[in-house]
Amino acid sequence: MNLPPMVTPRAFARLAEINAGGPGPALRVAVLGGGCSGFQYDIRMDEPAAEDLVLEGEGQRVVVDPVSLPFLAGARIDWSDELIGARFVIDNPNASSSCGCGTSFSI
After folding, report:
1. Where are the domains of the chain?
2. Name one GO molecular function term (predicted).
3. Is the N or C terminus of the chain more exposed, i.e. has fewer CB atoms within 10 Å?
4. Over the stretch 65-101, which tens digit does the pLDDT of each residue have?
């Protein structure tokens, strides 16, 4: 059985900041075909659908659709705030390679 993705406390805390501490839209993490390495992440605010996996923490939600779930099995969703920029990042053990920007990968 594949492990579901996990969301770090730092990512949930940033999502709570975005939603001003209250319940708000969920952070959707999806995998789409394309990008410079074959697949790319689609990270956006969205409402959960009935078939989504919902990960909850700090009163916030991160959702993954059933098609993207196998590509994100065991992945770690985190928040990175560095000099080069701040963004949600995905550490994906399924990716055999990724591009420099971190939004495109291959399996």
Report:
1. 6-101
2. 4 iron, 4 sulfur cluster binding
3. N
4. 999 999 999 999 999 998 888 999 999 888 765 555 5
